[in-house]
Amino acid sequence: xxxALWCILIAIFLPYLxxxxxKIGGGYRLRDNHDPRSFALTLDGFAKRAHAAQLNSFEITxxxxxxxxxxxxxxxxxxxxxxxxxVLFITSRxxxxxxxxxxxxxxxxxxxxxxxxxxxxxxxxxx
Length: 127
Fold this sequence. Notes:
Layout: H1 3-25, H2 36-41, H3 45-74, H4 79-102, H5 105-125
Helix pairs in contact: 1-3, 1-4, 3-4, 3-5, 4-5
C-alpha cells in the first residue's frame, strides 16, 4: 500500500474526529444517541463549527479518494509525487479543521482552496 492510499483512509476518518469534537463541545450524553441528528441541530459556537467541519470533510473526501485512485491508475505520475500531494492534502484538511474550530473564516476558505487545488493537481500530474 502506498502512502497516498493510507491518506485516503485517514481522510475517511477525519470527519469522525470532528464529530467527537462537536459532541464533546456540545455536551453530548449517551442518551442523546437516540436521535443524534436532532442533537446536531442544537449545537452552537465551537461545537456547531466542529459539526460544519465534519460535513465539509464528508463532502470533499470522495473527490480526494477519486483523485488518488485516478493518479494511481493513470500510471503517468511518479509515486513520490502522488504521495507528497496526498500528505499535503491531509495537512490542508487538518489546517482547515483547525481554522474552522478557531473561527478563522478567511484563512479557512484559503486553506479549503489549497485542498481543492491539490485534488486538481492529481489530474494534472497524471497527464
